[in-house]
Design goal:
heterodimer, A: mainly alpha, MetI-like fold, 14 helices, about 0% strand, globular, B: mainly alpha, 12 helices, about 75% helix, disordered N terminus
Chain lengths: ~280, ~290
Amino acid sequence: MSVGVKRYRVGAILKYVFLVAVGAYFIVPMLAMARFAFQAVPMALLTPEKLFSGWSFSGLGTALTDPEILSAAKNSLMLVVLAIILNLVLLVPLAIVTEVRNPGLRPYLTAFTLLPWVIPPIALVVGVAATFRATVPWFLASIFSLVPFYALWAMPFTYRALDAGLQAINARTLYEAARSMGASLGTIIFKVLLPNMRASMVAASALTAAMVLGEFVFASLLLKRTLPTEMVNYQRGDPRGGLALALFVMVLTALAIGLVVRSLRRRGLNVQTTGL
Amino acid sequence: MRSLFQKENRLGLLVALPFAVFVALFLIYPTLVVLYKSVMPHGSFSTSALVEAVSGTYRTGFINSISLSFWSALIGGTVGVLLALTMKSLTRPKWLHSTLDAWSAVASQLGGIGLAFAFIATIGAQGAITKVFMNFGINLKDMGVSTTGFWGLVVVYLYFQIPLMFLVMMPAVNGLKASWREAAAIMGASGARYWRAVGIPILAPSTLGGILLLFVNAFTAYATAYVLNSSYALVPLQIRFLLQGNVITGKEDLGNAIVTWVILLLLTSLLLMTYLQRRTLKWTSS
């Protein structure tokens, strides 16, 4: 008996040691980043006595008021809004019609929206440069050329979120019920389905925003000035301010995704953030 | 079979067409052009570009990228599964579940320049952990754990690999029913026997599928590696080099050929993954 109890205790202790180790792995880099960003004491000169000296948010303040950063942030926000709109305009009607009219097509659409996974940004950018650069140079010269590609990468998780939303409200039954009571298609879509899909649309939009705010491959290789590319430039001139800014953006994104995920789980809507 | 153009299907066509045109124009067309150009380098069929893309420094690139993806997927996969199993066995601190859940959703998306910056402050030359180990007389850089070395990159990549694996595995682990374990115990099976005969066979497909997903995820990661060490021989960084040097070196076909290999590699992994996922669904959907 005592052997069993002992073994159980060792197992429980191992469990907590493991959890603490994983937790430390996740937390330490963030703390180190915060220290570097907000404490103006080089690591080499940091001694226990100096642990609490030199802390300030001035680096973040300077970075946040830098005109280059501000204009890049404006570009990024514009891309966020446009990518979300394009994505929803393309996918919301498609998801609804597929669900209520041709449910047999759902698996194909699910597979189809996974295509951006097979052709990742770093591969597609070569094709984009090889095709559009020669045929429509004005297109790639504009910052708006990023919009369709950002919408493309948001497709896998957007479609899944919309589809999960439609499944959760039993869209086909609602559609048939409304139809049999004589509602027009427009009434069904705008008064029945869309209001019920608000949660999944918010979730998809938040994930799209997080993705666009962090996207680096296309912006960097097509030489566009967005928040991530400008952040790399800025960090070269002001390492502390650059890290402070990156941490600030990361915390904001994390809070946004975290809030959305939690509110969705509470509604019982299991949206896969991984896009699979 | 009704015709696609009959009246009741016109609505379907109306919503499907813009979507299809969009995907065709921005995803499929550029991809097909790359695939075509990689086997027709100078307007005629030749495999020279495809061969060159996997020789010399580009071979090194593929080897480095594949080993980086392999190790970060294997370690991240193992830790992710263990994390999911541990969390399932712990019921008590309720906040821990929701926190870890939300945090994983966040961290699995974090592979970017912010993450690279965080690790520069941690295991970079002036990093906090580098300094701590230095105090104990251990030089992390000599062990390959620096932001520019191979194992350093593995350590950084794990930051988004572990949470991704946790998210992918949670449904499968939750699908392990307590009644199976009880049934095994009643029939006299030990804990080890239960895992060998029931737990591992059921978790194996989704674990392998998850590891493949992590492999793909690491192989295509770009921003983190670029910030940490832009001259490292990794496929995504070499693609960047070729793309930006296009005009001068005229190595456009080489870039196309590398991308062709990448797409083949990802396609194989993802097909395998879909197959494994289908096997998992059999057990978890009931």
